[in-house]
Design goal:
Elements: H1 3-8, E1 12-14, H2 19-38, H3 46-67, E2 70-72, H4 78-84, H5 88-107, H6 113-134
Antiparallel strand pairs: 1-2
């Protein structure tokens, strides 16, 4: 599905660029990252930590979308949005994290400590790249 499909379905809407909302999303994402970095990834915390890192990335992407004049109401729509703005590599990584989060949250799947640690590192890199590119 392409980005236009989500617009037609009403899962993405054009919006005004709201700088206060963008700043708020970035600030809360950064605060959440600081909190999450304090947590130790253990077998009984791995699923929740992974899910929360995904949520931080998604919130940051929401700020990017708003900066481009879009409000996204579907996690699935972020992938074609990223492709739409020329971020194909990031879109593929985000979609992978979205699927992992869905398996954890909706199907009760476990995730290894090592996989969570690797994903945390990748998510932090993605956020840094996006921040440098879109919010200097």
């Amino acid at each position: 599905m392409n980005f236009e499909y989500f617009i037609v379905k009403g899962l993405v809407k054009k919006t005004t660029i709201n700088l206060l909302l963008i700043k708020s999303l970035i600030k809360t994402s950064e605060e959440d990252l600081k909190f999450l970095k304090e947590l130790k990834v253990k077998q009984n915390s791995a699923r929740k930590i992974m899910s929360n890192y995904y949520d931080v990335l998604r919130a940051f992407l929401e700020a990017v979308a708003i900066s481009k004049g879009y409000k996204i109401y579907s996690h699935e729509a972020f992938t074609p949005f990223l492709e739409f703005i020329g971020e194909t590599n990031i879109s593929q990584q985000f979609d992978r994290f979205r699927k992992i989060r869905n398996k954890i949250n909706y199907y009760g799947e476990d995730i290894s400590i090592e996989e969570v640690r690797e994903n945390i590192e990748k998510i932090e890199i993605l956020i840094k790249k996006l921040k440098e590119k879109y919010f200097k």
